[in-house]
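Field reference: sequence -> structure
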Amino acid sequence: MTHGNSRPTGLEQFANKLVGGLVKLGLGPRSMRTLVVRGRKSGKLYSAPVNLLELDGARYLSAPRGVTGWVRNLRVVGTGELRRGRSVETFTAVELPDEAKPVIMQAYLRRWHGQVKQFFPGMDASTPPDKLLAHAGDYPVFELS
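Structure field:
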């Protein structure tokens, strides 16, 4: 799948920095956070703007671009921080199996389809769970605790 390791375009990088700056100040959409995760090889801290999905009392991070750097790092280190303004929250992440993803993917698409539709070709919140399951392996999802 082409989106799996798609790097942000120059415009997307600019938008990520802009949104990241707003989130750092505690502004922007309430669901936005800056994800900070330690590099699996370098040990350096890396950050990326993410949408935190809260669903039925649980919290999730979904990777619409597929297996990105933050996904690979989080898979190895298993912990990170979510920052928004002065708020810093440490978490532990567990990656969900594909069978658990369709309901999360539907909720994610219901909430942020306008932002992420280019990464989910032919899918939206009304896509049947079996079709979402067929694509679930392309979209890592982590449950946070």
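Note: Residues 1-5 have pLDDT under 50 and may be disordered.
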